[in-house]
Amino acid sequence: MRLAALVALAALAAGCPTASEGPDVALPVLEGLGEGVIVPRYEVFETEMAEAAAAIAAFCDAPEQGTLDAARDALGEAHVAWKRSDVIPFGPARDLPWTIRARLDLWPVRADNVQELLDSGEPVTPEALNTTLNAAKGLPAIAWLLWSEDDSLAAFTDPDDGARRCEVTAALADDAAARGAEMVVAWQPDGDGWLSEFVAPPGPLAEFENSYEVVAELVNRMIFTVENARLLKMARPAGLEDGSVPEPDQLEARWGGGSLAAIKSNLDGVADVFHGRWSEADVPGIITLVGDDRRDQLASDFDATFFAGMAALDAIPAPLAVAIVDHPDSVDAAVSALFDLQAVLQADLAQALGVTVRFNDTDGD
Amino acid sequence: MNERPVGALRRLLTAAREPVDAAGLAAFRVLFGLLCTVSAVRFVARGWVESIYLQPEFHFRYAGFSWIPEPSEAGLYALFGAMALAGLGIASGVLYRLSAAVWLGAFVWVELLEEATYLNHYYLMTLLGVLVLALPLHRGPRLPAWMGWLLRGQIAIVYVFAGLAKLTPDWLAGEPLHTWLRPMGDIPVLGPLLVLPGTAVAMAWAGTLYDLSIPLLLSARRTRALGFAAVVAFHVATWLLFPIGVFPWLMIAASTLFFAPSWPRRLLGARWDRVAWRGAAPGPRPPLGPALAAGWLLLQVVLPLRHLGLPGDVAWTGRGFRFSWRVMLVEKTGLVEFRLVDRASGATRRVSPRADLTPQQYKMLCTEQELIAEYARHLAAEERAAGRDVAVYADALISLNGRPRARAVDPSVDLSVPAHALPDHWIPAPYSEP
After folding, report:
1. How far is A101 from chain B (nearest CA, A)?
2. B 206-225 residues with CB below 8 A of A?
3. Which residues pair with B398 in a beta bridge?
4. Sign of the dihedral defined by the CA atoms of residues A83, A88, A92, A98, in that order
5. What's the CA angle centered on B177, arms B175 and B182, to 5 degrees?
6. CB nearest B363 (choices: A13, A352, A357)
7. Are residues B100 and B90 in contact, defined by beta-carbon separation less than 8 angstroms?
8. Rounded distance, CA B159 to CA B157, Å?
9. How confident is the model at residue A20 (pLDDT cuts 50, 70, 90)?
């Protein structure tokens, strides 16, 4: 009603020709981020995950330490590529019919569910995996299969269970690769076209009413990505929140030692959106929407706190699963360093763009 | 004693007691009562009883009012139902005193349950509710002149102090209006105008001029029509642009107090006399009436000025900000986390308050030093209940009106101690204070 009244008021004022043709300055930024950062990042994951699936298939064809290491490396790279898009948890990542994030990255791994899938002997065809519990598939499950045993190679070559373990691991990897491809198709204009929801709101699904809503969503997601990196992925498993004993099993990427790499990739994703960074072809980032009077200072503050946070993460002796037990002070220091980065986003950027900070999805946890 | 002032005071008192047409006061009573009803119904309809009062496990309380009992769910809805009915009672004049008392009691009770929802217009409604209860606005056709003066004075104080509070470098430079208008660029036709660099500054100066001049414009017969047109235009515009609830309508209704006392009769003729009153005006009021009214207005002048006696810039510290008509003057964003240090073991843990608060509570906590200290005491109390004695420290960064964030609370001060024993924990404003 209020908007309708405002439009009516605006219509009365429509005699002013200069007021009716104003460009929406956010649209080029969204277009740049959508086409120049988000979709290319998903394409990288699609490629990396396909390579990881191929490496796992090659390992199953010739199970030896060299092919196992190659499969692990490939999965690690795919995981890092995926985590760079944590800052975009909406759209096909969250919404029906895709819900790709839940199907691909439910962490920490529910080992019991994966073990049940192994033991069930049920088929792991793509069709069958569509109805498999999310907790039993996705990147965490594949990592658990590749790393959790003391002697992983022996587990894969065991005369009784090895073939099944390989079959399940390869099938889950293929399924993850299919999700990567599905994500790209979901965003692409010649696919499901979710990109138009993002770059030209309101799109056909009316996900966002206008460009401001998209910007607000992005700013909130940047804040929550940093907050989750600090609290959900470090402070909580380290027992820094409730004073309890560290729980390595609660870490993201517990198996494979990729926890710190995942957090850094999360932060890189935040920087991508902030600066519009993407390899050679930079695009305007969110920072370009900030007024001239505050832009340089804000960009400088972001960079300073971002690199300080990264340095603090570098100072944690890897893997994080060991560091939260043996070097909790270094973890606490990183949590503190990233507090400053979150403050730049939550206090300065949110205000500069007139964005209200909402609930973090993980607040109900 | 000089006879001239004494004589003037006598004449003033005589004029104050002079019965005048009460039609305008009755019209204000009707409008105020209806707004009370609309406000209560709107609150329930929007689900705010649930989201503001029932869902949160913790409520920020005004200093000295933590003892206020928290009603049950049924009790809360009953309070809002009572407010809605009482508003109708005020408007109609039926069971007027009882209605006014019920509305005021229920409204104040609810307001005192959650400090994070403080709004200037709720405060104004409370003050007007006190005056409506105290004055026999359901009686007519004539009432002593001082009753109208008192209500007009209350509204004039709101405008004047709102205007004076705008005489700050931030406001006159267009902040925080500029920040608020920036996301409105895609509003059809007007949007591009709203985001022009000079628009916020022009609106800020116009707003200041408006606040400072409206009581005068409305008071003088020759400028009253212009003043009322400005009131309507200004408040409709703010209603369109900003989420400020019933405040615009309350201020438009209140501006009728400045009209000629008989304006409703001129508009509706004798019909007004048939519906406006529920009894004859009482006889001569006790002589204390004008004195009490003067005392009330003096208090209303002193309260908004109390920040002058408190250290620091009121916009940064928030000390003396409330109950001072400092309307729409600040945009604050921030981030706060707490560190709890076990006094026995030295063990430290972090507490991020977001998960335990509503978005509104969290936003207010992140930007108000007093609430940060209150929440720290709440955390310490929770720990004590669990058998642990902890010190509580806060990491709090706040950005005010577009300035880069700055630390707002001394992170070395243990905030767990009782409020009266708490050392100064504010860090001064990160800018030259006005």
Report:
1. 22
2. none
3. B334, B406
4. positive
5. 110
6. A357
7. yes
8. 5
9. very low
State pLDDT tens for residues A72-87. Answer: 999 999 999 999 999 9
Determine the pLDDT at residue A333: 97
pTM of the entire predicted model: 0.88
A138 contacts A104 by C-beta, under 8 angstroms: yes
B140 touches chain A (CB under 8 A): no
The minimal CB distance from A19 to the residues B189, B351, B355 is found for B189
Contact B190 A9 (CB under 8 A): yes
Which pLDDT does position B284 carry in this prediction?
Answer: 60
For residue B419 the two structure tokens come to 């409020």
What is the signed CA dihedral for A276, A279, A280, A285, rounded to 10 degrees? Answer: 0
Helix B145-165 with B288-302: angle, nearest 10 deg: 10
Chain A residues touching B347 at Cβ < 8 A: 243
Does ipTM exceed 0.90?
A: no
What are B106-150's pLDDT values in tens digits? 999 999 999 999 999 999 999 999 999 999 999 988 999 999 999
C-beta separation of A136 from A110 below 8 A: yes
For residue B211, give the nearest of B140, B157, B162, B171 by alpha carbon: B162
Closest-CA distance, B79 to chain A, in angstroms, reads 28
Residues 6 or more apart whose Cβ sits within 8 Å of residue A106: A134, A135, A138, A140
Render pLDDT for B145-169 as a digit per residue (tens, 0 to 9): 999 999 999 999 999 999 999 999 9
pLDDT at B184: 78
Label residue A96 exposed, middle or buried (CB < 10 Å: 0-12, 13-18, 19+): exposed
Q: Contacts for A67-76 with beta carbons within 8 Å, 24 or more apart?
A: A68/A146, A68/A152, A68/A153, A68/A156, A71/A146, A72/A146, A72/A147, A72/A256, A74/A48, A75/A139, A75/A142, A75/A143, A75/A146, A75/A173, A75/A256, A76/A256, A76/A258, A76/A261
Q: What is the distance in angstroms between the Cα of A343 and the nearest Cα belonging to chain B?
A: 6
The single-letter code of the amino acid at B278 is: R
**Distance, in angstroms, between B134 CA and closest chain A CA?**
36
pLDDT tens sequence across A278-324: 665 678 999 999 988 889 999 999 999 999 999 999 999 999 999 99
Cβ contacts (< 8 Å) between B351 and chain A: which residues?
241
Q: Which residues of A touch B188 (CB under 8 A)?
A: 7, 10-11, 20
pLDDT above 90: residue B4: no
